Amino acid sequence: MAVEAADAVTAGSGPRRAAPTREQARRIRRIRRSGAYVLLVISTAIFVLPFLWMVTTSLKSDEDNLAFPPQFIPDSFHFENYARGWSGSLPFTTFLVNTVLITALSMLGNLVSCVLPAYAFARMRARWAGVLFAAMLATMMIPREITLVPKFILFSKLGWVNTYLPLIVPEFFGVALYIFLLRQFFTTIPQELIDAARIDGASELRILWTVMLPLSKPAIAAICLFSFVSNWNQYLEPVIYIRSTEKFTLPLGLGMFSGQYATQYNQMMAVALLSMLPILVLFFIAQKTFIRGVTLTGIAGR
Amino acid sequence: MSDIVQSLEGLLERLHIDVGLRPILSLVILLAAVFAVICAALWGAVRARWISRNTAAFWIFVSPWIVGFLLFTGGPMVYSLVLSFTNWNLIDPAKFIGIANYKEALSDPDLGQAIKVTLTYAVVSVPLQTVLSLAVALLMNVKVRGIHVFRTIWYLPSLVTGVAQAVLFIWVFNPSYGLANGLLRLFGIEGPKWLFDAHWALATVVIMSLWTVGGNMIIYLAGLQDISKDLYEAAELDGANRWRLLWNITIPQVSPVIFFNVVTGLIYAMQTFTQGYVVTHNGGGPADSLLFYVLYLYQNAFSFFRMGYASALAWIFFVMIMVLTALVFRGSAFWVYYESQRPRERRRRVHVG
After folding, report:
1. B144 lies in the same domain as B236
2. Is the minimum CB–CB distance between A190 and chain B shorter than 8 Å?
3. Closest C-alpha to A302, from B305, B261, B112, B54
4. Are residues B291 and B322 in the same domain?
5. Do A165 and B142 touch (CB under 8 A)?
């Protein structure tokens, strides 16, 4: 009220009346904005706390590790926890190599096998194409747990248990979600470009390679990241198929570590952080492309 | 199938191919044969003028997915339905026992517990996640300096799923030395034993799941930024306040996105496995309070080797998810607002067909 009165005094009369209200609106907006800012900072601080706790724990000495009451910031920083945890009793470097191998091959398989069907669904005409596309969307709702037992029987008959093949080979046969995302993106590329290429006598594969793919980098990058994250973190299937320790992936190794050395939280957090590092690095490098990919490919259900 | 593979591997042995390479090479040969048959059949059909060249090309392009679906989803589903009527421990020959597995499931107390845990988790965590991620998205939609940093911070944990997340939260919720109880003690509260207390374990996993709302937040944010400014300006001219703008414009406009996220979130929550498995090392938590359905299925198949019963469980699980999804779909008519049974959307529909 006081603000309004003061404004009324200085404002004078006539057309200049509009100025104070604008000033006022700006002030309200500024107050609201700083309120939102405070809320942002507080909520983000709470949210990020577990993560900070993870980092500080990883730097604690063995004595402070189980200090009571818990210390948030350690007295001294012990970076050697990372080396001790990583190359201690479990060979995490081997696990890393295994995980990289599985993830890289799975990503490659996903890409190759999703691009072709996505292009067909987006730009090629055939009878039943619409029905097939709808059927593919419906299969996204099938939980993969239902195939757990029969797939295990199939793969053990093939002698694939305790190899990486059960984890990699199915990835070379298209993932419905990724096909859908890519197809949505392909439909936004102007048909004129494709028609022009067709008139020039380009084959469908050539159109896909020289016209569609270069224009679809955001979608492809998004799929690469989705595929990377899901393969890097997967747990259920490695638990079923991988038996010998030297073939473990990072999540399996981490699970084993937490089972065997349940109280060495400083080393455990160090190893957990290291095992996540590639994902975090990749995200920071490709952040913009990734977020743009998420919004452009219509994962938001549109 | 396995006979063919065996004879193929025999052939590879005679060619002195390394043992480790044999399984993958025999698979590649098999697949090449399958694709050769498909291509030959389509080529023949084109020559006979049953189908056009374009149609043949379409089917060749989509064949990776079709073959993959038949091999790794469709075929196994049928197989698992057959298995669900048998009793089989992988060693003795499978025995047909009719619907005995399903009868047993009806009166299995552990299965009852698994369904209770899983449904409770899904029904509690999904609405909480939805409200929180939408609220955060609204907060992240204000234009202040450095907002991108905040968005990144909120998004990051959704990349850290699975074991790393479980291990972190086992430590955060450690009853004596963990962060959660340490903070509560600052306020003079002695916190519960969290994951080690049958009453709190599931609630703790729900809290864990809220840490990864960042993924949904980004999706909602994209939805919010798609809303036309005109709608807000028109409503403001009519004197609507901020709450009315939220309830009558923002929420209806993003309701299709909410709907999509609720459906996928429910299916995802039903499939929870890692949390239960890691927390108590394949145990199911204190007093089976974390015996998620998939964990129970896993135990039956790979700890007790009851392949028939596990297959029956898988089919019950499948039906449960279908029913739940159908319920959400039926309910959606009452609250999901589609902007466009209107030109833009109709045009998009044409592309699908």
Report:
1. yes
2. no
3. B261
4. yes
5. no
Token pair listed for B82:
């057959």
The secondary structure of chain B in percent helix, strand, coil, rounded to multiples of 5, reads 75, 0, 25
Of B62, B176, B256, the CB nearest to A301: B256
Query: What's the mean pLDDT in B76-91?
Result: 93
Nearest chain A residue to B339 by CA distance is A302
Question: How many degrees, rounded to 5, is the angle at CA A43 between CA B120 and CA A299?
Answer: 60
Question: What secondary structure does DSSP assign to B92-158, as a single string?
Answer: SPPEE-TTHHHHHHHT-HHHHHHHHHHHHHHHHHHHHHHHHHHHHHHHHTS--TTHHHHHHHHHGGG
Within this chain, do residues B137 and B270 fall inside the same structural domain, yes or no?
yes
My answer on whether A115 and A220 are in the same domain is: yes
CB contact under 8 A, A113 and B219: no
Q: Which residue has the higher pLDDT, A57 or A301?
A: A57
Give dist(CA B241, CA A64) in Å, integer: 53
For the residues A122-139, what does the mean pLDDT come to? 89
pTM of model > 0.90: no
**Any idea what the Cα angle at residue A188 is, between residues A183 and A194, rounded to 5°?**
90
Q: Do B153 and A124 touch (CB under 8 A)?
A: no
Chain B environment of A239 (Cβ under 8 Å): 277, 298
Confirm whether A8 is domain-assigned: no
> Does residue A294 sit at the B interface (CB-CB below 8 Å)?
yes
Paired strand residues for B95: B87
Interface of A with B in 31-90 (CB under 8 A): 33, 36-37, 39-40, 43-44, 47-51, 53-54, 57, 66-70, 72
Contact call for B65 and A251, based on CB within 8 A:
no
| Interface probe with A: pick from B8, B29, B65, most Cβ of A within 10 Å | B65
Domain ranges, residue B331: 104-351
Is the ipTM higher than 0.90? The answer is no
Do the chains contact at A236 and B298, CB–CB below 8 Å?
yes
Nearest to A119 by CA among A186, A178, A180, A177: A186
DSSP, collapsed to helix, strand or coil, labels residue B221 as helix
